[in-house]
Amino acid sequence: MEASPTIFYLIPGLGADERVFQFLRLRGEVHVLRWLPPQTPREALPHYAARLAAAVPAAQACWLVGVSFGGVLALEVAQLRPLARVVLVSSFAGPAELPWAAGLARATGLHRLLPPQLLPRLPRLAQWFFGVKNGSEYQLLRQILHDTAPDFTRWAIGQLVQWPGQLNAAVIRIHGTADRLLPKGATHSQYRLPGGHLIVVSRAAEISRILNQLAEAVPVEPT
């Protein structure tokens, strides 16, 4: 029996959309799981993940590829879709990997005092944090920041700093060696690429090759 095509579900980072995946070249069927508006300002992350998982058939073997905060959702969705294999790109698996500022926010609730519009108003600061180059990468980052809904950002940051993690999950990890947002991630990653937090754009060719090789090594079984 002929093997079914590889199926990828891609989850972008906080507030981002399919634009961050535009340079990936994956061999198989590709779907982007777009962000849903939170049902309430206090919607729990597992509940949100269950709504996101509705787009992934339960009996379907697939790859869940999550970037940054999208990796957190990939891990949560995988709890509901046992046939899914997870790849984290520029992401993390638990609170111990977050920088000290996130730990402070977790303990004090300081993040509630920071306006979610801050980074869009300071694009050059965002450029430094994300480690993107001038030109098309910078323009893409500016567009994504401009288009991010403040209410979604506020909800997502609150969920992110309180997330207990999925430390025992079997995942493949790809991380930039110069990631300023999540600098500890490279230590825990099987694939370390030169670059910052937005390597899904700047190192799209290498990430495409890794994902395609992983899919070929572990083919999807027919359902």
TrEMBL record:
Stored InterPro entries: AB_hydrolase_1, AB_hydrolase_fold
TM segment ranges: none
Organism, scientific name: Hymenobacter lapidarius
Name used for this protein in its record: AB hydrolase-1 domain-containing protein
Domain of life: Bacteria
Residue ranges annotated for the AB hydrolase-1 domain, each copy included: 10-207
